[in-house]
Write a structure and sequence with these properties.
This protein is of the alpha/beta class. It has 22 helices and 17 strands. The protein has three domains: about 35-65, no CATH class; about 75-170 and about 475-490, Enolase-like, N-terminal domain (Enolase-like, domain 1, 2-Layer Sandwich), CATH 3.30.390.10; about 180-465, Enolase-like C-terminal domain (TIM Barrel, Alpha-Beta Barrel), CATH 3.20.20. It has helices at about 5-10, 35-45, 50-55, 55-65, 115-120, 120-125, 130-140, 150-165, 170-175, 200-210, 235-240, 245, 250-255, 270-285, 305-315, 330-340, 355-360, 370-375, 380-390, 405-415, 425-430, 465-470, and strands at about 80-85, 90-100, 105, 180-190, 220, 235, 265-270, 295, 320, 345, 365-370, 395, 420-425, 440, 450, 450-455, 465. The longest helix is centred in the N-terminal third of the chain and has 18 residues, at about 150-165.
């Protein structure tokens, strides 16, 4: 393992790992308990199997159902509707309703279309939302990489929120329990103009982030945009690295696909490497050498140039270099990873575990970084983390959304051992005065404190929407605020992925039409 990774993974005391051994069971026969004593004990955290064996049938039933939401009968839950609204920044929030009045919240990934989720409604109506894994396997064929995974992932979030509320337990407990009480966050360095930088102002803003906000991990963008206007720093950038190319949405909206990195033939000169190194050195000195500093925006060139950039930045002991190439280019990733000292990282656009497994098995990157709102939701992301851990690979969580998706990440990170940190974007979240007010926690605690996100101990995701605040910050292009969506209720396709009969070719009697 690279030395930087050893430093990042060796010390996690700040996360307050819950590794204390459980109390020992008393030796000898259990004392006779009354119903009052039983409920006192269950209120303190449940009972052992040995304790339950001494109970009456009545108290045993009470124990096994003591955590069930009394207003809910989970076995009889049925999905009745899916509704949505879209917060500013094109961040769709969905709500899955049930026949028992409880509902679940999910979020389609930032910049994605809310219809990625609503098209799944007809496949879920009438089904029990607590069968999360089965429903996920039913709909996952309709997702894809990057924003196309947003619909399936949003539904999965909402199903876990519903299930946690139905059984009166937090989502992290449904995922197997928690490893930590709080999650370390990484934030971006303050926004600035790298070419005409006010260094003193930058230092003051960094001081506020470290001392007042408590951020202990940072990320920067040492991209071509900082040096491309300096003569003699790049080759061929005038053709590919145009303003339209830099805008990640404009080419897609006009029907032109962005060129992948190996196909731009943009190169960086020795002068360009020197200028890039000067910029990174300045930021590193302001951040401090005692804190992790990651780097994104380095994916602008081919394999050979990527290696040159990586080696030029190795002396600054960066926590990671992110997204040199698309996730499909496993061989190219491995070539760069093996050639430089700085850890490499990718994963925010990968849907489902299979692509991550290929990256991990090839040792193509040093760290994986799924975005839970693309990768498939809470359980799929935990599975990715668990597999990465089994191969000695740590995980960081990518995030850019509302507190709904944020809390889903918190539960997943709490339940996954090898998580190093969770992204906290500046403009959309950290520096946004109303962002945290979109929701309220149901346990009364803050969402975050001093650079760490707090793991809730309340049912589901542990939040409810502050509807008055949300209504003030809706995307004006969409007029829905959780209105009924009957237009998405009918299914008009056969979703089977393969065909075949099990009757040896004999005539199959058609079933009677399904009656609700």
């Amino acid at each position: 393992m690279k030395n930087i990774l050893k430093e990042l993974t060796k010390n996690k005391q700040e996360e307050n790992f819950t590794t204390q051994p459980p109390p020992k069971e008393p030796i000898g026969p259990a004392p006779k308990q009354g119903r009052r004593d039983f409920f006192k004990k269950t209120a303190l955290g449940g009972m052992s199997l040995a304790g339950m064996m001494s109970l009456s049938v009545e108290d045993s039933i009470a124990e096994t159902t003591s955590k069930v939401q009394r207003s809910s009968n989970p076995s009889d839950l049925k999905i009745t509707d899916m509704r949505y609204c879209v917060a500013v920044g094109r961040r769709p929030i969905i709500r899955i309703d049930t026949n028992q009045g409880i509902y679940g919240l999910g979020e389609v990934r930032d910049g994605a279309d809310w219809r990625y989720a609503l098209m799944l409604k007809s496949r879920l109506l009438g089904l029990n939302p607590t069968n999360v894994e089965m429903l996920f396997k039913l709909i996952k064929q309709f997702g894809g990489h990057a924003r196309q995974g947003g619909g399936v992932s949003a539904v999965e979030m909402a199903l876990w929120d519903l299930t946690g509320k139905a059984y009166n337990v937090p989502c992290w407990r449904l995922l197997g329990g928690k490893y930590r009480e709080k999650i370390r966050m990484y934030a971006y360095v303050p926004r600035h103009d790298g070419r005409n930088m006010d260094v003193d102002k930058f230092k003051e803003e960094m001081k506020f982030r470290k001392e007042e906000l408590g951020i202990t991990w940072f990320k920067m963008y040492p991209s071509l945009s900082w040096i491309a206007d300096i003569p003699g720093t790049t080759v061929n950038d005038r053709f590919w690295f145009t303003a339209e190319y830099r805008n990640s949405y404009a080419p897609v909206q006009t029907g032109d696909l962005r060129a992948k990195q190996p196909f731009t033939q943009t190169q960086i000169t020795d002068k360009g490497l020197d200028e890039l190194a000067k910029y990174v050195e300045m930021v590193r000195n302001v951040v401090g050498w005692d804190l992790p500093l990651g780097a994104d925006g380095v994916g602008n060139y081919d394999v050979n140039t990527a290696i040159r950039v990586g080696k030029a930045l190795d002396p600054y002991r960066l926590a990671f270099l992110e997204d040199f190439f698309p996730m499909d280019y496993i061989d190219q990733w491995k070539t760069v990873t093996d050639a430089i000292e700085t850890p490499t990282l990718t994963g925010e656009d990968i849907y489902l575990k299979e692509k991550f497994i290929k990256l991990i098995d090839a040792h193509a990157v040093d760290i994986v970084q799924p975005d839970l709102a693309t990768s498939g939701g809470l359980l799929e992301t935990k599975i990715i983390g668990d597999y990465a851990e089994s191969q000695g690979v740590p995980m960081i969580l990518h995030f850019a959304g509302t507190p709904v998706s944020f809390m889903a990440n918190i539960h997943c990170a709490a339940a996954t051992n090898n998580v190093l940190s969770l992204e906290m974007p500046n403009n959309g979240s950290l520096d946004n005065p109303w962002w945290k007010d979109l929701v309220k926690t149901t346990d009364g605690n803050n969402i975050m404190e001093k650079g760490f996100a707090l793991v809730p101990d309340s049912p589901g995701l542990g939040i409810e929407l502050q509807e008055d605040v949300l209504k003030e910050h809706l995307d004006p292009r969409y007029d829905s605020f959780f209105k009924p969506t009957p237009e998405w209720s009918d299914i008009s396709s056969s979703d089977y992925l393969w065909s075949g009969r099990t009757t040896g070719g004999t005539e199959i009697k058609q079933p009677e039409p399904y009656k609700k």
